[in-house]
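Question:
When you can, review this sequence-structure pair and walk me through the C-alpha coordinates.
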Amino acid sequence: MEGLEIKQRREALGLTQKELGDRIGASRETIINYEKGKPIPKSKSEILHKVLLDNAVADKKVVGAEEIKFAHPFENKNGNQFIELPNGKFYMLMPLADFNVQAGFLDNYQDSDFLMDLSQHGIMVDKPVHGRYVAFRINGDSMDDGSNQAISRNSIVSTRELQRQHWVNKLRYRDFPYWVIYTTQSKLPLLKEIIEHNTEEGYITCHSLNDSPEFTDFRLYINDIQALFYVIDVNRSVSKKVVY
Protein backbone atom coordinates (compact mmCIF):
# COMPACT_ATOMS: atom_id res chain seq x y z
CA MET A 1 0.00 0.00 0.00
CA GLU A 2 1.44 3.36 -1.06
CA GLY A 3 1.54 6.51 1.05
CA LEU A 4 -1.15 8.38 -0.88
CA GLU A 5 -3.53 5.42 -0.68
CA ILE A 6 -3.02 5.19 3.09
CA LYS A 7 -3.87 8.88 3.43
CA GLN A 8 -6.95 8.61 1.19
CA ARG A 9 -8.29 5.52 2.97
CA ARG A 10 -7.65 7.03 6.40
CA GLU A 11 -9.47 10.25 5.52
CA ALA A 12 -12.36 8.33 3.93
CA LEU A 13 -12.79 6.43 7.21
CA GLY A 14 -12.75 9.68 9.16
CA LEU A 15 -9.64 8.72 11.13
CA THR A 16 -6.95 11.12 12.29
CA GLN A 17 -3.32 10.12 11.96
CA LYS A 18 -3.20 9.48 15.72
CA GLU A 19 -6.33 7.32 15.63
CA LEU A 20 -4.91 5.20 12.81
CA GLY A 21 -1.62 4.96 14.71
CA ASP A 22 -3.45 3.72 17.80
CA ARG A 23 -5.20 1.08 15.69
CA ILE A 24 -1.92 -0.40 14.46
CA GLY A 25 0.29 0.23 17.49
CA ALA A 26 2.27 3.11 16.02
CA SER A 27 2.77 6.80 16.74
CA ARG A 28 1.22 9.69 14.81
CA GLU A 29 4.70 10.53 13.50
CA THR A 30 5.02 7.01 12.07
CA ILE A 31 1.74 7.38 10.16
CA ILE A 32 2.95 10.73 8.80
CA ASN A 33 6.10 9.01 7.54
CA TYR A 34 4.10 6.20 5.93
CA GLU A 35 1.88 8.72 4.15
CA LYS A 36 4.99 10.49 2.87
CA GLY A 37 6.15 7.25 1.27
CA LYS A 38 8.66 6.03 3.86
CA PRO A 39 9.23 2.22 3.99
CA ILE A 40 6.61 0.20 5.89
CA PRO A 41 7.68 -2.98 7.77
CA LYS A 42 5.89 -6.14 6.65
CA SER A 43 4.15 -6.56 10.02
CA LYS A 44 2.74 -3.03 9.85
CA SER A 45 1.83 -3.43 6.19
CA GLU A 46 -0.37 -6.42 7.04
CA ILE A 47 -2.18 -4.63 9.84
CA LEU A 48 -2.66 -1.50 7.70
CA HIS A 49 -4.19 -3.69 5.01
CA LYS A 50 -6.56 -5.22 7.54
CA VAL A 51 -7.60 -1.91 9.10
CA LEU A 52 -7.97 0.05 5.87
CA LEU A 53 -8.93 -2.51 3.23
CA ASP A 54 -10.10 -5.90 4.50
CA ASN A 55 -13.86 -6.39 4.44
CA ALA A 56 -14.00 -9.76 6.24
CA VAL A 57 -15.00 -8.35 9.66
CA ALA A 58 -16.28 -4.82 9.38
CA ASP A 59 -18.48 -1.98 10.49
CA LYS A 60 -20.13 0.11 7.79
CA LYS A 61 -19.68 3.85 7.65
CA VAL A 62 -21.14 6.15 4.98
CA VAL A 63 -18.95 8.96 3.72
CA GLY A 64 -20.76 11.03 1.11
CA ALA A 65 -22.34 8.62 -1.33
CA GLU A 66 -19.71 5.91 -0.73
CA GLU A 67 -20.23 3.08 1.73
CA ILE A 68 -16.94 1.99 3.31
CA LYS A 69 -16.32 -1.05 5.47
CA PHE A 70 -14.05 -0.59 8.47
CA ALA A 71 -12.25 -3.47 10.17
CA HIS A 72 -13.44 -3.89 13.76
CA PRO A 73 -11.05 -5.44 16.28
CA PHE A 74 -12.00 -7.89 19.01
CA GLU A 75 -11.25 -6.69 22.56
CA ASN A 76 -10.69 -8.82 25.66
CA LYS A 77 -12.07 -7.78 29.04
CA ASN A 78 -8.81 -6.00 29.93
CA GLY A 79 -8.91 -3.76 26.87
CA ASN A 80 -6.34 -5.50 24.67
CA GLN A 81 -7.46 -5.41 21.04
CA PHE A 82 -6.95 -8.20 18.50
CA ILE A 83 -7.15 -7.61 14.76
CA GLU A 84 -7.22 -10.64 12.47
CA LEU A 85 -4.68 -10.53 9.65
CA PRO A 86 -4.93 -12.01 6.15
CA ASN A 87 -2.51 -14.81 7.16
CA GLY A 88 -4.88 -16.00 9.91
CA LYS A 89 -2.81 -14.63 12.77
CA PHE A 90 -3.84 -11.75 15.02
CA TYR A 91 -2.23 -8.41 15.80
CA MET A 92 -2.56 -7.72 19.53
CA LEU A 93 -2.44 -4.14 20.78
CA MET A 94 -1.45 -3.21 24.32
CA PRO A 95 -0.81 0.09 26.13
CA LEU A 96 2.82 1.24 26.09
CA ALA A 97 4.14 2.49 29.43
CA ASP A 98 6.76 4.97 28.30
CA PHE A 99 9.33 6.59 30.58
CA ASN A 100 7.07 9.49 31.56
CA VAL A 101 4.22 7.33 32.93
CA GLN A 102 6.07 4.41 34.53
CA ALA A 103 6.39 5.99 37.97
CA GLY A 104 2.62 6.38 38.39
CA PHE A 105 1.58 3.47 36.23
CA LEU A 106 0.38 1.15 39.00
CA ASP A 107 -1.88 3.86 40.40
CA ASN A 108 -3.68 4.34 37.08
CA TYR A 109 -3.37 1.27 34.87
CA GLN A 110 -6.87 -0.02 35.64
CA ASP A 111 -8.34 3.34 34.61
CA SER A 112 -9.64 3.01 31.04
CA ASP A 113 -9.33 6.76 30.39
CA PHE A 114 -5.67 6.66 31.44
CA LEU A 115 -4.95 3.71 29.16
CA MET A 116 -6.70 5.34 26.19
CA ASP A 117 -4.28 8.26 26.39
CA LEU A 118 -1.23 6.00 26.14
CA SER A 119 0.52 5.01 22.93
CA GLN A 120 -0.06 1.45 21.75
CA HIS A 121 2.41 -1.32 20.98
CA GLY A 122 1.56 -4.40 18.95
CA ILE A 123 2.80 -7.95 18.46
CA MET A 124 1.70 -10.95 16.39
CA VAL A 125 -0.16 -13.75 18.20
CA ASP A 126 -1.80 -16.96 17.02
CA LYS A 127 -5.21 -16.21 18.56
CA PRO A 128 -6.97 -13.76 20.90
CA VAL A 129 -6.01 -14.44 24.51
CA HIS A 130 -7.19 -13.52 27.99
CA GLY A 131 -5.13 -11.62 30.53
CA ARG A 132 -3.75 -8.11 30.94
CA TYR A 133 -0.97 -7.28 28.50
CA VAL A 134 1.22 -4.18 28.83
CA ALA A 135 4.37 -3.01 27.04
CA PHE A 136 7.20 -1.15 28.78
CA ARG A 137 9.97 0.93 27.24
CA ILE A 138 13.26 0.09 28.92
CA ASN A 139 15.34 2.77 30.58
CA GLY A 140 18.68 1.54 31.90
CA ASP A 141 21.64 -0.69 31.11
CA SER A 142 21.36 -3.49 33.66
CA MET A 143 20.10 -5.96 31.03
CA ASP A 144 22.56 -4.90 28.33
CA ASP A 145 25.60 -7.16 28.15
CA GLY A 146 26.38 -6.29 24.53
CA SER A 147 25.20 -9.68 23.23
CA ASN A 148 22.39 -10.47 20.82
CA GLN A 149 20.21 -11.29 23.83
CA ALA A 150 20.78 -7.88 25.42
CA ILE A 151 17.75 -5.78 26.27
CA SER A 152 19.17 -2.32 25.83
CA ARG A 153 17.86 1.13 26.62
CA ASN A 154 14.80 2.09 24.50
CA SER A 155 13.90 -1.53 23.79
CA ILE A 156 10.21 -2.38 24.28
CA VAL A 157 9.18 -5.49 26.21
CA SER A 158 5.67 -6.91 25.85
CA THR A 159 4.42 -8.47 29.07
CA ARG A 160 1.51 -10.24 30.72
CA GLU A 161 0.64 -9.46 34.32
CA LEU A 162 0.77 -12.36 36.75
CA GLN A 163 -1.98 -11.94 39.33
CA ARG A 164 -0.95 -12.00 42.99
CA GLN A 165 -2.84 -15.21 43.82
CA HIS A 166 -0.41 -17.11 41.59
CA TRP A 167 2.71 -15.87 43.38
CA VAL A 168 2.48 -18.52 46.10
CA ASN A 169 3.20 -21.19 43.49
CA LYS A 170 6.58 -21.58 41.84
CA LEU A 171 6.96 -18.89 39.18
CA ARG A 172 7.52 -20.14 35.64
CA TYR A 173 10.84 -18.35 35.44
CA ARG A 174 12.46 -21.07 33.33
CA ASP A 175 9.79 -20.59 30.64
CA PHE A 176 9.75 -16.80 31.07
CA PRO A 177 13.13 -15.69 32.45
CA TYR A 178 12.64 -11.91 32.17
CA TRP A 179 10.22 -9.96 34.37
CA VAL A 180 9.12 -6.38 34.91
CA ILE A 181 8.83 -5.92 38.67
CA TYR A 182 7.27 -3.14 40.72
CA THR A 183 8.39 -3.04 44.36
CA THR A 184 7.58 -1.04 47.48
CA GLN A 185 11.13 0.35 47.34
CA SER A 186 10.72 2.39 44.15
CA LYS A 187 7.96 3.84 41.98
CA LEU A 188 9.94 2.86 38.87
CA PRO A 189 9.85 -0.72 37.60
CA LEU A 190 12.79 -3.12 37.40
CA LEU A 191 13.56 -5.38 34.44
CA LYS A 192 15.37 -8.46 35.70
CA GLU A 193 15.97 -12.12 35.04
CA ILE A 194 14.51 -14.26 37.83
CA ILE A 195 16.88 -17.14 38.54
CA GLU A 196 15.33 -18.49 41.74
CA HIS A 197 11.98 -18.55 43.52
CA ASN A 198 12.10 -19.82 47.08
CA THR A 199 8.47 -20.45 47.98
CA GLU A 200 9.26 -21.58 51.54
CA GLU A 201 11.09 -18.38 52.51
CA GLY A 202 9.08 -16.19 50.14
CA TYR A 203 11.68 -14.51 47.97
CA ILE A 204 12.96 -14.37 44.40
CA THR A 205 16.56 -13.86 43.26
CA CYS A 206 17.02 -11.23 40.55
CA HIS A 207 19.87 -11.26 38.04
CA SER A 208 21.14 -8.67 35.56
CA LEU A 209 22.68 -9.60 32.20
CA ASN A 210 25.19 -6.77 32.57
CA ASP A 211 28.09 -8.14 34.66
CA SER A 212 29.17 -4.73 35.93
CA PRO A 213 29.77 -4.79 39.73
CA GLU A 214 26.90 -2.35 40.27
CA PHE A 215 24.42 -4.94 38.95
CA THR A 216 24.98 -7.84 41.34
CA ASP A 217 22.29 -10.43 42.05
CA PHE A 218 19.88 -9.65 44.88
CA ARG A 219 16.87 -11.06 46.68
CA LEU A 220 13.40 -9.58 46.66
CA TYR A 221 10.86 -10.75 49.20
CA ILE A 222 7.37 -11.37 47.87
CA ASN A 223 5.89 -9.04 50.48
CA ASP A 224 7.94 -6.19 48.98
CA ILE A 225 6.62 -6.80 45.45
CA GLN A 226 3.63 -4.81 44.18
CA ALA A 227 3.23 -6.21 40.66
CA LEU A 228 4.82 -8.83 38.41
CA PHE A 229 4.74 -8.87 34.61
CA TYR A 230 6.48 -11.65 32.68
CA VAL A 231 8.05 -10.79 29.33
CA ILE A 232 6.59 -12.55 26.28
CA ASP A 233 8.29 -10.54 23.53
CA VAL A 234 11.24 -8.17 23.15
CA ASN A 235 11.44 -5.47 20.49
CA ARG A 236 15.11 -4.62 20.77
CA SER A 237 16.48 -1.15 20.17
CA VAL A 238 18.25 -0.88 16.81
CA SER A 239 20.96 1.25 18.39
CA LYS A 240 23.75 -0.65 20.10
CA LYS A 241 25.82 0.64 22.93
CA VAL A 242 29.46 1.10 21.92
CA VAL A 243 32.09 0.23 24.55
CA TYR A 244 35.53 1.72 24.09
User: Anything to note?
Assistant: The chain has six helices and 13 strands. The CA atoms of residues 3 and 38 lie 8 Å apart. The longest strand covers residues 186-198.
